[in-house]
Amino acid sequence: MTEAASNSELPVPDELRGQVAITSLDKIYNWGRRNSVWPMMFGLACCAIEMICTAASRYDIARFGMELLRPSPRQSDLMIVSGTVTKKMVPQIVRLYNQMPEPKYVMAMGACASGGGPFKEGYNVVSGIDRFVPVDVYVPGCPPTPQALLHGLIRLQEKIDGQSIQSVRWYDDKPSEAIPVPILGPDLVDPRDSRLFAKGSQSAAVSQDTVAAAASPSRA
Ligand code: SF4
Predict the structure, then answer these.
(1) 187-194 long-range CB contacts below 8 Å, 24 or more apart?
(2) Global confidence as pTM
(3) pLDDT digits (tens, 9 = 90+) for 179-209
(4) Cβ < 6 A, ligand 1 pocket
């Protein structure tokens, strides 16, 4: 008889003992998901080399059912952001995140993806991918070792274990909303702020007109 059945208060007939297991729907659902998390196959910088090592034979990510690194976001459950996140790359990362089906998870691997790392406040680097997409697990290090990445993956499995089919967002009545893809110009712009920018440029234009009118009173 399994441990689950022996701990259960539900009676199991003698003839079925050793052949049945009693568990909750959440547990069996999460058991399936936690052991088949498919990461997306993409890397950004040096941290990606450690991620590649993790998939090789010495560390063998297949032990966790995670060896199927998918080349398409539409087949992926997990985005491992492994490397320096430049402003030029952010729109692509957000677009890929939006293309992943629910349930989906994000891991910030290394100091760069978690908070900017050694390039923090550089002109071309963002201070962490969590400013744009929700991060589930942070793996510290520069770069994190394969063991650290595996530890992060185990933490993700623990997070999945704690989720309930009754409260997860992908079974909500409403569809999950896509994150607006930032626009790259002289700097990154969140399209949700466009009204503020329009308002700001209008008031700047008005004040410029006022200054011009004051400088040439004969025209007035
Ligand atoms: S955290 Fe370190 S190793 Fe990883 S991408 Fe940044 S600089 Fe490279």
Answers:
(1) 187/87, 188/87, 188/90, 188/91, 188/126
(2) 0.83
(3) 999 999 888 888 888 777 777 777 777 777 7
(4) 45-47, 83-84, 110-112, 117-118, 142-143
